[in-house]
Amino acid sequence: MKTFKTTIFMMLAAVAVTACSNEDEATQPTAKMTIEQDTYNINESMTVHFTGDAENVVIYTGDTGHDYELREQSNTGLVVNKGLFTYAYTTPGTYKVVCLVTNHSNEGSVVLRDTCSAYVHVKDDVTEIERISAPAVYYDEVFAEAIGGGNWLMVLPRKLLYKNKTLTVPLKQKLKFYISSSTSKIAVDGEEFNSTSKYDLASTHSITVTSNEGSVAEYKLLTLNYAIFKSFSLLGKTGTLGYSEYDYSTYTMNVKVPAGSDLSAVAPKFAMTADNERAYIDGVEQTSGVSTADFTKPVTYTLVATHPENPEVKVETKVIVNVTIE
User: Fold this and answer.
1) Does the predicted TM-score (pTM) go above 0.85?
2) Which of the listed residues 119, 169, 214, 318 has the most CB atoms within 10 Å of its CB?
3) How many helices (H) and strands (E) does the chain have?
4) Which helix (H) or strand (E) holds 9?
């Protein structure tokens, strides 16, 4: 009887050891993935679906820093989360995408691996300009606006206020193009763009963008100045133009007149800075020395500058005239 009990105990112990051993053993993982397409543009999201079976899944995308063939040289894979992986390439080329999967025993003494791979082609066919700026104007904060038809409009102040000093802004400026490609080529008036060159923005410039794939897009860069009064006087008193440090499209004109002056209907004398500029009050064009206004309260002029080559392209400036009694 004692021998029988001992035999049963040894059999149960053997089963328990075997069960524990099986739990510690690593099972062979399976690497399987699907990629939604095999051709992408730069900055376009690639989606990888993991359809295999494994405890740990990483993707080597094949570009710099993530090349499976260079994994022994500190190139790394990227972890797949819940069977889904997304990535965007920034450089064109053909890349080998490798899916590496591993299973291991609880103690880590046994690691089983499997891989699968696929190739994707990434092209750079970017010809779209995202933004254009004049970077030398007050900390690169003056940007052109896309106005349709491949045209961009750069609007510059003639003067700006900087640290309580009024500075003149020249029309010869460096340009900066924002485009989501490092390989697309930009030409200005048929010449390769140079970020250190100054371009005369008094003229309209032709911009050509050629992608790495050979696609070409044509643009025009037009420029206008915010209109300002060259001179402004009221009842023989000359006004002083005030500039804002933050808003180039709004100015003040401050005029001091003698006590007792009748300000209810006065025709100021003014001159515009350029021939393509006009002054309006409430949509009515104003004529120097003829058109009257009530200056007992602030009067807002709308100055409109029209592009000489494209009359549909306009920019407005607000000038608020404040009259005080001396």
Assistant:
1) no
2) 169
3) 1, 29
4) helix 2-24
